[in-house]
Amino acid sequence: MGPVLADVLLVTALIGALALVHRPLGDYMAAVYSSKKHLRVEKWIYRAVGANPDAEMRWPAYLRGVLVFSAVGVLFLYLLQRVQDKLPLSLGFKPITPDQAFNTAVSFVSNTNWQSYSGEAAMSHVTQTAGLAVQNFVSAAVGIAVAVALVRGFARSRTGDLGNFWADLVRGIVRILLPISVVAAVLLIAAGAIQNFGDIHTITTLTGDKQAISPGAVASQEAIKDLGTNGGGFFNANSSHPFENPGGFTNLLEIFLLLVIPFALPRTFGKMVGNVRQGYAILAAMGVIWFLGVVTVTWIEYAHPGTASQLAGGAMEGKEQRFGEGPSSLFAVSTTMTSTGSVNSFHDSFSGLSGGVLLLGMMLGEIAPGGTGSGLYGMLIMAIIAVFIAGLMVGRTPEYLGKKIGTREIKLAACYILITPALVLIGTALAMALGKGESSMTNVGAHGFSEVLYAYTSASNNNGSAFAGFAANTEYHNTMLGLCMALGRFLPMVFVLALAGSLAEQKPIPETAGTLRTEKPLFTGLLVGAILIITGLTFFPALALGPLAEGLAA
Amino acid sequence: MNTSVVNNARMLWAALRMLLVLTVVTGVVYPLVVTGIGQLAFNDKANGSMVKVDGKEVGSSLIGQSWNIEGTDKPDPKWFQGRPSNSGYDPLTTGSSQLGADDPTLVKNIEAAKKQVAEFNGVPESEVPKDAVTGSASAIDPDISPEYADIQVKRVAEANGLTAAQVEKLVKDNTQGRTLGFLDQPRVNVLELNIALKELAKS
């Protein structure tokens, strides 16, 4: 069988698996967040914490929960890295420097998982499992909680209540993320991923050389890293490391994990607002963009433009033999469009135009299908914008799901979509103007600029993948990228929750003959169009300086 | 004012306790349970799929190695060689070159690698496959393409006093196809191939 046919089968198997699972999982998640009952273990947790899971919160209280919990998370993770040498199982690693510890703490709490460190040479067992992996769980659960709060804003009326943040957080972990992670982690071990708390283990090879074999609780972290769309690799090589991703089966499993919750959440949304077809219109928009990205990048990588790739006879620089061009491209598109950022091949060495598509995937705002939770709320904001544009065309007050999109709502949505582009473009421009961009480049020319643009795009959109030639571990970039990650995660949440509150207070308006049918393919088309036009207008100049210049020069 | 300070302090305290409880659940219980299952059910894999020769561990079948003449960085003709590595196959510094597809340094590296591989194996440059001249992502890629193994057969056979047919068969036996027909790429695990080679050369 040829490689292309194998890739077609791979994508078909992946889509088949997602199609099979999205419905039961989406319905299950809707039930989880609608249920009035608490599991016994959840009751223990609430008692230990002293939180009342049945107290309804209005949006400011919900937001305060999100922000305070995340701030505590940053502080805890920062301190853990600073004292890791004093704790057991340190593997002899030194404490992380203050700027890097700040960057890493914000990175994991904001679900970005940008890494300016190299895991196998910096982080102790305790930091990895009790620090980084914990944030993999909780940051994903926070994302879903905020999305669910927005969905409740649409589903409820004449109330300001959005649910209880603590209950949503705990349920997301206990009932969704943990069970799937345990199953996935065991499957990963069965296929060769390691899972131990041993020491670095030195062996003598047949040639008489010494080689150090890394230990680690890798499979358990790998599972939630992908499922929670986190992306922070246990090792520097991330999912290209054979201990994280030993072969074709684990590769498919990992891609499935990073797509499964984002692609199931539209079903949850449809279920909770009482019309699953509304969810499918959103799902279709996500799926179309993702699929176009996969086809484009795979095609370009097989064509391997670029002087070096042409000379080598294929685009295999930075790719593993067991994966090859197709599965590497599939992983790359899925990871950049889900805000995951784990990689099984290095994006820096992809051809110029492929790199441009990966960048664009993030610039869309991580909505196709986006991160756990953040993908859904990002897409719903875009849906509001699309409804607004349609309203302007026909001169009607726009409405969505029976809620009026008035001045306040559209202002909040507009603020939301302005934040990350502002962070990306100002961050990149500042780095370039201050000469901090150039000094961190590995590559020369337009590709060097792409490295800087990629770094700030990845951080601001909470993706975490990199053109890893970019030397990110400097005081300047650790600090600035840390700020981009924090603002890019939490400012949008402020607007989402404010919007949720204002929608929940409205009374529903009855559907009339003039209402835009947002569950129809026409709306999906309008939505995809609005997303592409807004992103294109915002980022075209920056893309022209980097990947487009690079791709067209070759 | 006072009540909001109290409220915020209460929230902070609750958040801290929540984080600690969740740290125990997801950061201690979860990895330990998974480790327990892994160590019991898949002990060999959970500990790195180590490979033994004569009772001694000589590497992990998942981690590539360098096959140089002892004490040098020159490739040893008697072993099958792996892909170029950004770190000399050191598992403590994984990651690739990060050079772009048009990068002049990468062009130079590939030119040099092509020339070296062709001369080393006594084949024309046109026969050198792509994986032989490009660095892997992890820098510890355990595999090479069957094509790269094929062009090494003649050189390896001569260096070990074996016939080309014998070594060719060895490569064939150690070539893995796609799992289920569509997962993985066809590949040869270099460590396993070299262990088999050593056995053959001994007998």
Give the total of domains of chain B.
2
Instruction: Give the overall shape of chain A, derived from the CA principal axes.
Output: globular
Euclidean distance between termini CA atoms of chain B: 87 Å
Strand order of the largest sheet of chain B: 3-5-4
Brief overview, please?
Chain A is an all-alpha fold. Chain A is 64% helix and 2% strand. Chain A contains 17 helices and four strands.
Describe how the helices and strands are arranged.
The complex is a heterodimer of chains A (554) and B (203).
Chain A: H1 3-34, H2 40-49, H3 59-82, H4 98-109, H5 125-155, H6 165-190, E1 201-204, E2 210-213, H7 218-227, H8 248-272, H9 276-303, H10 307-312, H11 325-337, H12 352-363, H13 374-394, E3 399-400, E4 403-404, H14 407-433, H15 445-460, H16 475-505, H17 521-553
Antiparallel strand pairs in A: 1-2, 3-4
Chain B: H1 2-41, H2 43-46, E1 50-53, E2 56-60, H3 104-121, E3 143-144, H4 146-160, H5 164-173, E4 175-176, E5 187-189, H6 190-202
Antiparallel strand pairs in B: 1-2, 3-5, 4-5
Which keywords apply here?
heterodimer, A: 554 residues, mainly alpha, B: 203 residues, 3-stranded antiparallel β-sheet
Q: Please, could you describe this protein's structure?
A:
The complex is a heterodimer of chains A (554) and B (203). In chain A, helix 1 packs parallel to helix 8 (248-272), helix 3 packs antiparallel against helix 16 and helix 8 runs antiparallel to helix 9 (276-303). Chain A has one domain (3-553). In chain A, a hairpin with a 5-residue loop joins strand 1 (201-204) and strand 2 (210-213). Chain A contains 17 helices and 4 strands. Chain A is 64% helix and 2% strand. Chain A is mostly helical. Chain B is 49% helix and 8% strand. In chain B, 46% of the residues are buried. Chain B is mostly helical. The N and C termini of chain B lie far apart (87 Å). Chain B has 2 domains: 2-43; 49-202, no CATH class. Chain B contains 6 helices and 5 strands; from the N terminus they run ααββαβααββα. In chain B, the strands form 2 sheets. Chain B has a 3-stranded antiparallel β-sheet with strand order 3-5-4. A two-stranded antiparallel ribbon of chain B has the order 1-2. Chain B has helices at 2-41, 43-46, 104-121, 146-160, 164-173, 190-202; strands at 50-53, 56-60, 143-144, 175-176, 187-189. The model of chain B has no long low-confidence stretch (mean pLDDT 95). In chain B, strand 1 and strand 2 form a beta hairpin. At the A-B interface, helix 1, helix 2, helix 3, helix 5 and helix 6 of A face helix 1, strand 2, helix 3, strand 3 and helix 6 of B.
